[in-house]
Amino acid sequence: MSNHLAVATATATLQRILQRAVQRDVDGARVTTVRPDGSSGSIPETGVNLYLYHIKRNPALTNQDTPNFQRRGDMTRRRQAAIDLFYVVSFYGNDGDLEPQRLLGSVVQTLEDQLVLGADTIRATIADPTFAYLADSDLAEQVEQIRSEFISVSTDELSKIWSVFFQTPYALSLVYKVTVIIIESDVAGRSALPVRDRVLGGTVFPKQPVVSAVAAVGGKNQPIFSTSILSIRGQHLSGVLTRVRIGQLELTPQVLNTGELRVPLSQIPPSQLRAGVQSLQVIHLQAPPVPPRGRRPRRTTRTATLSRNTPARPPQVESNVAPFVLRPTVESVEVENLEGFDDEPRSGMLTVTANLAIAPGQRVVLMLNEADPSGDNPAGYLFAGPTLRETATAVTIPIRDVKPGEYLVRISIDGAESLLEVDNNPESSTFEQYIRPKVTIR
C-alpha cells in the first residue's frame, strides 16, 4: 500500500523514464508535466508534455476499499483506494524535421519496453535529488504491479480532452493509463476495548494484535533477504506467549515493546523459505481455561481418550495477515550448450542457482543486461523460465539470439527481483557501478 505521495511518484517516475529516452533520440528534448495550455508552466519548444487529466477507480479492485466494521461501528483496518491514472502525452517540435513524430515513436518504444514500473525504478526516482519532495514516498513497496498501457481513443474523444483547455491549439497526442495505484488511509483501524478482567468459564478476553507494517530493520525502503531482520510494527503485539507465523512456520520473536517485534529470518532454513510475497501473522498463545476452585471439569470417556492421544494446543489469538516481499539472491550462473559462431547471436542454456528454493508453480524470469557501460545502446534480454516439477534451488533457462558479451544477471521469482551488487570502493575503476553477478556469453 502507498501513502499520499503515490500519484506524484508515479508521474515523476514516468517523467524520469521518458526524459532519458527522448534526450537520447532528439537533441534538446525535455519532458514536462504542466497543463497543455501553459497556465501552470512553460510548454517545451521541443519535447514531451505528460499531463494527468483523469483518475478512475480500478474496476478489478473496486471493493478493496470496503472497510471492515465491528458491531459498534469501529473500523478494524485502514481504508484503501485503488485508482487508475490517465495521462495525455503531447509532443512538440519542428514539424519540418518531424520532431513531434520522432518523439512520439521514442515514447511509445520506451513505454512498451518498460510496461511495468518496477520497484528499483521507483526507488531511483525517489532518491533523485530533483524529486526531493518525494523522499517519504513508499510506492516502491506496493505489492500490486504498476503497469503503463497505451489507450486507443477516437478523434472525438481526443478532441473532448483538448476542449477543456481554452483556446489551446491541438498538439500531436497519445493517451496512456497507469494501473494500479493503491493509496492507504492514514486513519488506522482499531479494535473495541475488551471488558476489563471479565472472566467467563476461566477465560479472559485478550487484546487482538494488529500488524500495520513489516519491513527490514534499517528502513522501510530496504529490500528484504533471507538474512534480514524483520521489524514488525503495530498494536498489542506483545503477549504472554508470542509467536510469529511466516507461511507454515512459527518463530519466537524478539520483543522490543508492545508496538514492535523483531524476527531474524536466519532462524528459518533457506530450504523452507520461498521468494515472492510472504504472509505474516502475530499469534498470542493463551493459557488453557482454569476451572473454578472446588470443582473439577466433567469429562466423558471419549474426551479423555482424545486428550491422551492428541496433544491439545492452547487457545490463541491471531493478528491480521500482513504481506512482505522476500527477494532471492543469485549465487551462481553457468552457461551450457551455446550455439553460434563469430559475431552471430548465441543460443543455449543458462543454469541459475538461487539462495532460496523455487517451488513448483512459481514464475521465474531471467534478466540479462550488457555490463559494458560505455556502449551507446547496451543490450538487454528477458527470458521466461520453465515450470518446475519439484522444489529446487537451480533452474535451467533457455536463451536465444543473445549478442556475445558480458552480462549482469538478475532473476525474478513471482515478481521478487534479485539485486545487483554495486562497487563501493572509491578507488576502483568501476566505482558506483554494478559489478556482479555476471556471466560471459562467448
Largest sheet: 5 strands, mixed
- Strand percentage: 35-45%
Could you tell me how far the N terminus lies from the C terminus, measured between alpha carbons in angstroms?
44 Å
**Which radius of gyration do the C-alpha atoms yield?**
27 Å
By secondary-structure content and strand pairing, the structural class works out as mainly beta
Neighbour order of strands in the largest sheet: 1-2-3-5-4
User: What would the average pLDDT be, to the nearest integer?
Assistant: 84
Q: Quick one: overall form?
A: globular
Number of strands: 26
The helix count comes to 5
As residue ranges, the low-confidence spans are 196-200, 300-307
Helix content: 10-25%
What would you say about this model in short?
This protein has helices spanning 6-25, 99-113, 119-127, 155-163, 301-309, and strands spanning 30-32, 47-57, 80-92, 147-151, 173-184, 199-200, 203-204, 210-216, 229-235, 241-246, 249-251, 254-257, 260-264, 276-285, 316-318, 322-326, 330-339, 346-358, 364-370, 380-384, 392-402, 405-413, 416-417, 421-422, 434-436, 438-441. With 442 residues, the chain is mainly beta. It is globular, with a radius of gyration of 27 Å.
Walk me through this protein's architecture.
There is one protein chain. With 442 residues, this protein is mostly beta strands. It is built from 5 helices and 26 strands. It has helices at residues 6-25, 99-113, 119-127, 155-163, 301-309, and strands at 30-32, 47-57, 80-92, 147-151, 173-184, 199-200, 203-204, 210-216, 229-235, 241-246, 249-251, 254-257, 260-264, 276-285, 316-318, 322-326, 330-339, 346-358, 364-370, 380-384, 392-402, 405-413, 416-417, 421-422, 434-436, 438-441. It has a 5-stranded mixed β-sheet. Strands 10, 11, 14, 15 and 16 form a 5-stranded antiparallel β-sheet that branches. Strands 19, 20, 22, 23 and 26 form a 5-stranded antiparallel β-sheet that branches. Strand 22 (405-413) and strand 23 form a beta hairpin. Helix 1 crosses helix 2 and helix 1 packs across helix 3 (119-127). The protein is globular, with a radius of gyration of 27 Å. It starts with 5 loop residues before the first helix and ends with a strand. The model is unreliable at 196-200 and 300-307 (pLDDT under 50).
